[in-house]
Design goal:
Length: 138
């Protein structure tokens, strides 16, 4: 007969551990994405698509006997456009993101001021605090 028994049970449920690791991986993947890079890629693809349309229209007017040569030329134009406009698209994306961030901050501050003023109209204590802050700033 045994006098002691060793039972080793896990202190964590394996499903919970898997879900926590999946959530951590998703959060790390989300932090790896940059909105600036995404916007730059979107602008770059729009520019290249416009150039591709123009190149296709030019090549469509040529006789169909040189179709393979036209497709090769169109793809060369596409990759050259990608190479030429990558820096410009990235700088446009950065400036657009900066402008949108500033606009969003100004809009949030304006809404907060409106809410505070509406609250001050209904609550005399808040109005007194605002008046005291105004006299202190003067």
């Amino acid at each position: 007969m045994t006098s002691f028994v060793h039972l080793e049970y896990s202190k964590q449920h394996p499903g919970v551990t898997r879900v926590e690791s999946a959530l951590d991986a998703a959060q790390q993947m989300r932090q790896g994405f940059s909105s600036t890079r995404g916007l730059a890629a979107l602008l770059l693809s729009a520019i290249v698509a416009a150039i591709m349309v123009v190149a296709y229209e030019v090549m469509d007017s040529v006789a169909e006997g040189h179709l393979l040569l036209m497709w090769i030329t169109m793809w060369v134009v596409a990759f050259a456009a990608l190479a030429c406009f990558a820096g410009a698209a990235r700088s446009m994306a950065v400036s657009a993101k900066t402008a949108l961030d500033g606009w969003s901050r100004r809009l949030a501050a304006s809404r907060a001021d409106e809410r505070l003023w509406a609250m001050a109209k209904t609550d005399p204590r808040v109005m007194a605090d605002l008046q005291a802050a105004r006299t202190r700033s003067e």
